[in-house]
Amino acid sequence: MEKRQRFLPVSFLFFFFITLAVWFACPQIGAADDHRTTARARRDAREHHRHNGHVKLFVFGDSYVDTGNFEPNNGSWLPPFGRTFPGVPSGRFSDGRVLTDYIADFLGIRTPIAYQQIRVGNISEQLKSGVNFACGGTGIVSAISKGPILGDQIGQLGQMIRHRFYNQTDLNNSIAIVAASGNDYLYATLQVFLLIIIISNLVTRTNLI
């Protein structure tokens, strides 16, 4: 009994330190696995695009993915937007990159040009990575800005296809992003709020009369 009491603390400390070492090592192992998985997925995506042509990224939605379609000299075109990337306001509702930029980087392509930023000359190079039709403040059926709603954005792509800026091969090698972040709900809420104000004013005037 005396020997067991003498060696019990030593055994306990031994297993304690082993457990502690494993506990600290597991996050590092997991992080390394995540990094390898991400790197492998990136390589697979780029290898696929190398064999199947240059991938096109078509983006639809709102400010979460907009990279320059919002009305000029307003909103996302003013500081502090763009402070960390690209250094000046660029039409992104962020001080840096938005989801579109990260997905394009993952695919190994340049961020697709914003529809409103397409200019005459060297069109094929401008459209090489696809087009971003998303516009801040827009929704699926309504908008709180002057931008096109989702159906109109899709119509813009359809128009480009009809004018043969993209062919079937391009579409087969394309990826679409659709972001819907709640502007429809916000628009409806604003309409209800406005209606309440109007009714309140009418009731107030009626009581005064």
Low-pLDDT ranges? 1-7
Secondary-structure element order, as H and E?
HEHEHEHHEH
Number of helices: 6
Structural class: alpha/beta
Estimated share of beta-strand residues: 5-15%
Strand tally, please? 4
> What best-fitting shape do the alpha-carbon axes yield?
globular
* Rg over CA atoms: 27 Å
Query: For the terminal residues, how far apart are their CA atoms?
Result: 99 Å
Question: In order across it, which strands form the biggest sheet?
Answer: 2-3-1-4
User: What count of domains describes the coordinates?
Assistant: 2
Mean pLDDT: 82
* Largest beta-sheet details: 4 strands, parallel
Q: What is the share of helical residues?
A: 40-55%
Keywords: Hydrolase, Lipid degradation, Lipid metabolism, Membrane, Signal, Transmembrane, Transmembrane helix
InterPro entries: GDSL (IPR001087), SGNH_hydro_sf (IPR036514)
Protein name: GDSL esterase/lipase
Family: Belongs to the 'GDSL' lipolytic enzyme family.
Distinctive features:
single chain; 209 residues; alpha/beta; four-stranded parallel beta sheet; 4 strands; disordered N terminus; hydrolase activity, acting on ester bonds; GDSL esterase/lipase; signal
Describe the structure.
- With 209 residues, this protein is α/β, with parallel strands linked by helices.
- The protein has two domains: 1-52; 53-181, no CATH class.
- Helix content is 52%, strand content 7%.
- It has six helices and four strands; from the N terminus they run H-E-H-E-H-E-H-H-E-H.
- It has helices at residues 2-52, 99-107, 123-126, 150-162, 168-172, 183-208, and strands spanning 56-60, 113-114, 130-132, 174-178.
- The chain has a four-stranded parallel beta sheet with strand order 2-3-1-4.
- The model is unreliable at 1-7 (pLDDT under 50).
